[in-house]
Specification:
The chain has 154 residues and is mostly beta strands. Helix content is 5%, strand content 36%. It has one helix and nine strands. The strands form two sheets. A six-stranded antiparallel β-sheet has the order 6-7-4-3-8-9, covered by helices on one side. The protein has a three-stranded antiparallel β-sheet with strand order 1-2-5, with no helix packed on it. It is globular, with a radius of gyration of 14 Å.
Length: 154
């Protein structure tokens, strides 16, 4: 299985995430672009998480039922439950949509944007699902995945 290639115009793999995309800036989502996906892909899921959070992994963004025809989520993706059939879940800040990096002062964390190619057009979930519920529904349906990692410290 070839990995999906995930990129951003905002930062490169392993590089710092610009302040606009964090809680210290405008807290908007960066543009995320992906390619090299399996032909049989029916939809995509994006999960952004911070594996370095004090409480374990902290979920920053959950997006699902992304149509298979799309290859990007634009910068400043609206923080709404649903747009053009694309659904967003609840992050660990307790909000719908993107929540930017906001690590404790004095630490630098990794932020991983995971893209999953899914074998069904919809996970058949309502909006506002948690990462755990989305991951359970994806089980056995993942055709391929890829990731982009950025860092941010305060």
């Amino acid at each position: 299985m070839e990995p999906i290639i995930v990129k951003s115009m905002s930062f490169d793999e392993g590089e710092p995430i610009p302040i606009d995309y964090t809680c210290d800036g405008m807290d908007i989502s960066p543009e995320i672009v992906w390619n090299n996906v399996p032909e049989e892909t029916k939809s995509f899921v994006l999960i952004m998480e911070d594996p370095d959070a004090p409480s374990g992994s902290f979920t920053h963004w959950v997006v699902y039922d992304i149509p298979s025809t799309l290859r990007l989520l634009p910068e400043n993706f609206p923080k709404v439950p649903q747009i053009d059939g694309i659904k967003q879940g609840i992050n660990d800040f307790g909000r719908i949509g993107y929540g930017g990096p906001c690590p404790p002062k004095g630490s630098t964390h990794r932020y991983i944007f995971n893209i999953y190619a899914i074998s069904v057009p919809s996970l058949e979930l309502p909006t506002g699902a948690t990462k755990k519920i989305v991951e359970e529904k994806m089980e056995g349906k993942i055709l391929s995945k890829g990731k982009l990692t950025g860092i941010y410290g305060r």
